[in-house]
Amino acid sequence: MAAALWLALGLPALAALAARLTPRAAGAVAVAGAALGAVPAILLVVAAAGGERARTGFAWLPASPELDVGLRLDPLSALMAVTVALIGLVVVLYSAGYFASSPRRPSALAGLLAFLAAMQGLVLADDFLTLLIFWELVGALSARLIAWNRAEPRAPEGAVRAFFTTRTADIGLYLAVLALFAGTGALAFGTERPEGALGALVGLGLVAAAIGKSAQVPVQNWLAGAMRGPTPVSALLHSATMVAAGVYLLVRSESLLAGWPLALAGWVGAITAVVGAVIALGENDLKRLLAGSTASQLGLMFVGAAVGGPAVAIFHLVAHAAAKAGLFLATGQFQHNRETTNLEELRGAGRDDPAAFACFALCAASIAAVPPFAAFWSKEHIAAAAEAEVAWFVLVLLAAAGSAAYMLRPALVLWPVGEAARAGAARVGEVARAGRGAMLAGAGILAAASAVLGLAGEPLADLLKGGELPSSTLSLALSLLALAAGFAGAVLGRRPARSLVEAARRGLYIEEAQRALVVRPALLAARASGRLDDRVVDRAVDGIARGGLAAARRERRLEERGIDAAVDGLARLVARGGQSNRRLQTGRLHEYLRDTVAGLAGVALVILVAAIT
Amino acid sequence: MISLPVVLGVAALLFAVGVYGVLSQTNTIMVIMGVELMLGAAMLNVVGFLRYSWPEAASGSFFVLVIMTVMAVEAAVGFALVVTVFRHRRTAELDDLTGLGD
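ok -> structure tokens follow
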């Protein structure tokens, strides 16, 4: 199985390279690569179901055997790997169509595949060192994907914000890993949290890293900024990869987080579930609405990880991944048709493109927790598990009502009931026709998955040894009530209070708070240090420069007086010699002859003297 | 046969007469003739040494013949120059011909 582990991560990476090198056939190469990459992932999950466990790796530092880099096969890693691989395959298939008319298609497809490879490494990692390496790779490659669209002037901003937010939270992971190593001397999964301050650092750091990657309160805003990326990228980032990494980290390090860190994660998740729902209710852009929804659903997963255990959280992760990816893929279809994601301008877009709308509706029903779709079951388990903690239970039910409302609202806009279809309204455009088959196929597969994945709960729990999935009549009844309330609110067109909507649009003023508490002080400090720089450092540097100039000038004067004077003197000497020689030149032949004879006589004398002596 | 010192002595005498002529005469033609005398002295030396060192070698005689031809050419050119200068300046005195000094 070791080969399958390496292949699951290596094949997408190779496919990324191949897609880049064969620009003409990039679409086929990328889809083939993603499909081949899914094969070892499926083999892994089959092997894991058969009870097989495997580890493979090599020494990172030969001198420290505890610092190994390796991959592992266990139920959790296999399940995550197969989710990532299959969602990735569908998104790549869709992207081959989505980017059909873009000259930079190979770059986009290669970026998606490379990102998939990094994510596979993250979920298959055997210890915290390997996890950290791929964690960083996922962050860096996601920024590249978000910034892919050069025509979108605000894409780099979104990419930088996503990168910096997750990067800042990653400091927590670094601290946690270092503290873990200091406390236990190893980086393996499944150890106990060390005692005292080191243990606190491990707990806080891991939760902070999960919050950052999964866009929980208070840093949920990077997710909306990441919407500037192409829609398939959003689909991938928001479903099985990137944001899922935070939940995966919580589940993977459950033994390290037992106690207050998990409670902290649960509180953050419960609050984010409601905050995200409010944001989604207030947004007027379909993609940003879905971003708010993602934060909310991930908050529910945090609650599930805190009270329900791995199986509850991972079940919701899988169900949400399929539905959310499907929603984004359908949204991309509408975006191609109308060239916008603004909800008002998309009015009636579903009626123009019924196939895409059908996919959208199925996935939205799943997210809204309409029985019997997948997310209904997974959310019900979370609610049942949260019953033990009344505050979380209330927040989860509020989020459930919110999700019902914020999913019905765009559906009603896309297919306005009771409004006649506009005559001559925009049909499927020229741009949209290219690659339409691949796009619809991708969205359709995910919609079908959203419809049937509800059956996967029990086998999944068996696989993860999570025991019985929690379930109760009370939570079931209250969930259905919340669903009905949410739908009623959306149908009646009751929007939340204007101030709430405004707050949601501004990310609940969390961004403003961050700006006031972090950005402005940082800018002030920067300006102060800039002034210090101007006044003290620059002056010193200027002084040094002035000193250098003065020294140079002195040097020059020395040169003029010394070296130049010597050269001039030599020239004068030669000139004087020439002047005096000129006097010999009289033109009288007799004088020349006299001098010649005298010279010859002198030479003869010398020879004579030499001969005698 | 005349001995070598005698030949060398005659040549030295001839050379001295030539030097005296070059230094004492003021007429250009006389100076040129002094130069000819010195060349003749040098030639006499060459012939003398050849005769006593390599009596069988014919190349020395040819060398002397070449020098004699050069002397004749030189005298002809020199005299032609002097005649031309005389026509222009109405004088052939060396001390009047100092135009190269300026």
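Chain B has a mean pLDDT of 86.
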